[in-house]
UniProtKB/TrEMBL annotation:
Residues that, per the record, bind Mg(2+): S234, T255
Name of protein: tRNA modification GTPase MnmE
Residue numbers binding (6S)-5-formyl-5,6,7,8-tetrahydrofolate: R23, E85, R124, K456
Naturally occurring in which organism (per UniProt): Geobacter pickeringii
Assembly with partners or alone: Homodimer. Heterotetramer of two MnmE and two MnmG subunits.
Entry keywords, A to Z: Cytoplasm, GTP-binding, Hydrolase, Magnesium, Metal-binding, Nucleotide-binding, Potassium, tRNA processing
Name of the gene: mnmE
Amino acids binding K(+): N230, T249, V251, T254
Superkingdom: Bacteria
Length: 456
């Protein structure tokens, strides 16, 4: 429930920094500014103007720190409420003391995400844009940031709004005939209802088709490097990272634990796991490493099966082939700078294969492209027009809406009762509304905003 009180929090990260920001939002923001910010000028704070002065303790009148303060009066603020921001020196103790001074003036400590939740409840942003804000903060690559910024700017919301517009138009026509049962649905109105609902269905289908791409840009993908010992798995990891992260020796079984690193491939975040070499071993530690490797393969979004092109295939290679059967994988034939010792590997794996030399770097650009194309299917993700779903919550809501529209179209073609048709459209609209927050239950809103930090 939204309570119109005044909240406050430190909005900058904990620790030392050049500037610390304390944010205040609510009806008492202006009064708090007048009480604790000492300036050289008297009178009210002008909106959106910075003032230099000192923050003082309201109990003692002593200076806490010099600061800049700005009051942003409603509705031209982040929350559409009166917002005060105080910028002081960045340090744990000084920002804490400024916040304490604000709280002693009647504000309460904000809950996680409460500033953004107020922006949503006050109609400044919808729920898609609110969720995009935290994705902007947590983005690991330029492509993930671009996708989040497009959603924050309202581009996905615009697509959703167009779908809602078509459904509402179709529903209005259906309900008009319910209100006037003596009128039969004429051919033009029937065609309009059919066209609008099919347009909404097609738009939802297009958004759902792009979900996998949006998800991997937002969340990244898990990539396991697997192979028998001494085929160059750790060398491949180091080459992709462009730094020496894993120990590389000529001794088989050097890597026994799983090493995880993040690599950016054209904006696609890869969580790469270098695993122990797979082979029969009497060494208990090495056997545990092999077990972990085989356990991680089914959990991965992609497996890079590394082969030593200078050595014939053997039973250990075939163990890996069996482990990745039916899974998304790329065969990486390493040591292309040496004579090739085999010509073929299982036909099921030949569709995605590349030859490289981790020692010279040959084939690495082609491997990067193949990894990228495995998840991003030729779409210009850096385009300003690129819009995609990236949240499972959005996908599930739109999938439910698609199901109800499909039911509506089937009932429409059979000439079902108009009241049944209206229920189908209302259900579809309710499902779509869950994406933008119009019909999202409070418990889901709580979960979404709890993901934010306290000062956001």
């Amino acid at each position: 429930m939204y309570v119109e009180d005044t909240i406050a929090a430190i909005s900058t990260p904990v620790g030392e920094g050049g500037v610390g920001i304390i944010r205040v939002s609510g009806p008492d923001s202006s009064a708090i500014a007048r009480r604790i910010v000492r300036r050289s000028t008297d009178g009210d704070f002008e909106s959106h103007r910075f003032y230099y002065g000192s923050v003082v303790d309201p109990a003692t009148g002593l200076d806490i720190d010099e600061a800049m303060a700005v009051l942003m009066k409603a509705p031209r603020s982040y929350t559409r409420e009166d917002v005060l921001e105080i910028q002081c020196h960045g340090g744990y103790l000084v920002t804490r003391r400024v916040l304490d001074a604000v709280l002693r003036c009647g504000a309460r400590l904000a809950e996680p995400g409460e500033f953004t939740r107020r922006a949503f409840l006050n109609g400044r942003i919808d729920l898609v844009q609110a969720e995009a804000i935290i994705d902007v903060i947590r983005s690991k690559t330029d492509a993930a940031l671009s996708l989040a910024q497009h959603q924050r700017e309202g581009r996905l919301s615009g697509r959703i709004g167009a779908i809602q517009g078509d459904l509402r138009h179709a529903l209005a026509l259906v309900e008009a005939y319910i209100d006037f049962p003596e009128d039969e649905v004429d051919r033009a109105s029937f065609a309009e209802i059919d066209s609008r609902s099919r347009g909404a269905f097609a738009a939802i289908e297009e958004l759902l088709a792009g979900f996998d791409e949006g998800r991997v840009l937002r969340e990244g993908v898990s990539v396991v490097i697997a192979g028998k010992p001494n085929v160059g798995k750790s060398s491949l990891l180091n080459t992709l990272l462009q730094e020496k992260r894993a120990i590389v020796t000529s001794v088989p079984g050097t890597t026994r634990d799983i090493i995880e690193e993040v690599v950016n491939v054209r904006g696609l975040p890869l969580r790469i796991l270098d695993t122990a070499g797979v082979r029969d071993s009497e060494d208990l530690v090495e056997r545990e490493g092999v077990r972990l490797t085989l356990e991680r393969i089914p959990q991965a979004d992609l497996v890079l099966v590394v082969l030593d092109g200078s050595r014939p295939l053997d039973a250990d290679d075939r163990t890996i082939f069996e482990a990745v059967a039916g899974r998304r994988s790329i065969v990486v034939v390493n040591k292309s700078d040496l004579p090739r010792a085999f010509d073929r590997f299982p036909q099921a794996l030949e569709r995605a294969a590349v030859e490289i030399s981790a020692a010279t770097g040959a084939g690495i650009p082609e491997l990067r492209e193949l990894i990228f194309d495995t998840f991003i299917h030729g779409r210009a993700i850096d385009s300003r027009e690129y819009v995609a779903l990236s949240q499972a919550r959005h996908r599930d809501a739109l999938a439910a809406a698609r199901e109800r529209i499909a039911a509506f179209l089937a009932n429409l073609s059979r000439g079902e009762n108009l009241e049944i048709l209206a229920v189908d459209l209302k259900d579809a609209l309710h499902a779509v509304g869950e994406v933008t927050g119009e019909t999202t239950p409070d418990d889901i809103l709580d979960l979404i905003f709890q993901r934010f930090c306290v000062g956001k």
